[in-house]
Every structure is written in structure tokens, then in C-alpha cells.
Design a protein that fits this description.
Blueprint (H helix, E strand, L loop, with lengths): L2 H10 L17 H18 L4 H7 L5 H27 L9 H11 L3 H25 L3 H29 L4 H32 L4 H20 L12
Helix pairs in contact: 1-4, 2-4, 2-8, 3-4, 4-7, 5-6, 6-7, 6-8, 6-9, 7-9, 8-9
């Protein structure tokens, strides 16, 4: 796969929420609203980013197609925030302007360089792959279930996209640097799982997860991403920019 492939993918996926029927009568019950409100507020905020620093880093990449692909990726993430926000508005759930976990992740993404930004981002997307399964099962809302189904499909592709990008960095490193970077990512992943469980366990439990099942399923997704990152294949869109 090359950046032309991913660019075309994001373009073709731009209308992926157009079939949602926002006019159907589908309001959360008081109990459902109580269970998901604070959790949904945090994830909606996390999806909402202008991506200025990420795009600035992307423009330093030797292949110009990458920056254009990232622009489309950011737009897709913003669409997630938009549809979740619209659902929240329908159900009288206020949007939040900031949250400490989101602030930490934004700080980490800006900390060093493009590789670091993508590593932090894929960590959040791996968590999202499990979280939106739980959120889907936590209420009987047909609209929320449809939104979660589509977001899950998107996150699957996002993880593949970010893994392909990290593979480019991985293949250029020494054996020691490879080990160090992958170890640090694992530490970040485990820490993130614990933080998310503390903040979102009400939704996760209602959606069918215990801490152990949440941890194990998230780590399985992480390990699948690691296989893609470490895969020894010739990537035609490597640093040559051809």
C-alpha cells in the first residue's frame, strides 16, 4: 500500500455517515444517559482536533503525498467529533472544552517529532477500537450503534494506516533503537489502558468488559499493530518520495 492508496481511501470514505437517519425517535433513557455522559463527552472531545501540529510535522515528510493524506485523515477524525456531538446535542449532553487526559495526549503528540505523534495517535486509536464496541453495547440507541459501527470500521483502517507509517521509521533504526522504541510504546499502551479503565469503566462494564477482558482485547489489537509496524517488507512509499 502507498500514500496514493490511503489518499484515495479517505476521499472515498468521506460520505460514510450520510445514511444516518437523524430524524428517527431515538432518545436515551435516563439510566443510559447517566452511564455514558461523562465518558462520551471525553471521547467526543478527543476526536475533535484541528491537527495543526500533526499537519506541520507531516509536511516535513519527504513524500508530499503524505501531508495531503494526513489532511484528509484529520478531516475524518473531525467528522467523528461532529457526528458524536450531534448525537450529544439530540440527547441534551453538553460538550466539554477540555479534559486532563485529552490535554496530556495533545501534549505528548506535540512533544518531539512525527514518529512520536503517530505513536501517541495509534495508541489512542487502539483504545478506541475497544471503547466503541463497549459504547455500542451500553445503550439501545440505534443511532449511537450506527455511529459506533462506522467509527469502528474507520479506526480499523486508521490503525493500519498509522502502522504502515511507523514501519517506515522502524526499518531505518538500529536493533537497539527498534527495541527501545517498541518497548516505550508498550509501556505507553499499558499505562493508557489503566487510565482509560479508571475514567470509563462504567461504559466498559455496561458494554460487557471486565478490566481483564478490556486489557487482553486491547493488547491483542496492539500486538496486531506491532506485527504491521515490524513487518519486513519493501514499501514503495519509503523515504525516497517516489
Amino acid at each position: 500500500m502507498n500514500f496514493s492508496y490511503w489518499k484515495n481511501y479517505f476521499i472515498s470514505n468521506a460520505s460514510h455517515f450520510e445514511d444516518v437517519d437523524w430524524n428517527q425517535k431515538d432518545i436515551l433513557s435516563p439510566d443510559e444517559k447517566r452511564i455514558i455522559t461523562t465518558s462520551l463527552q471525553q471521547f467526543q472531545k478527543g476526536e475533535q482536533s484541528e491537527g495543526k501540529h500533526f499537519y506541520s510535522f507531516a509536511k516535513t515528510f519527504p513524500d508530499p503525498r503524505y501531508a495531503e493524506t494526513i489532511r484528509l485523515f484529520i478531516r475524518e477524525e473531525q467528522t467523528h467529533a461532529y457526528v458524536l456531538g450531534k448525537f450529544m446535542d439530540m440527547n441534551g449532553i453538553a460538550r466539554i472544552k477540555k479534559h486532563w487526559v485529552d490535554n496530556i495526549f495533545r501534549w505528548l503528540r506535540k512533544l518531539t517529532d512525527l514518529e512520536n505523534t503517530v505513536t501517541v495517535l495509534i495508541t489512542a486509536e487502539i483504545i478506541a477500537k475497544i471503547y466503541y464496541k463497549a459504547l455500542r453495547n451500553a445503550t439501545g440507541s440505534r443511532i449511537l450503534q450506527q455511529l459506533c459501527d462506522q467509527i469502528l470500521k474507520d479506526e480499523e483502517q486508521h490503525i493500519s494506516f498509522q502502522s504502515n507509517t511507523l514501519n517506515l521509521f522502524y526499518t531505518k533504526k538500529s536493533r537497539i533503537r527498534k527495541f527501545f522504541n517498541r518497548f516505550c510504546h508498550q509501556v505507553l499502551m499499558v499505562g493508557t489502558i489503566c487510565i482509560v479503565w479508571v475514567d470509563h469503566q462504567r461504559v466498559l462494564k455496561t458494554g460487557g468488559y471486565s478490566f481483564s477482558s478490556f486489557f487482553m482485547e486491547t493488547m491483542l489489537v496492539f500486538l496486531e499493530a506491532e506485527k504491521l509496524i515490524q513487518k519486513q517488507i519493501k514499501m514503495e512509499f519509503a523515504f525516497s518520495g517516489n
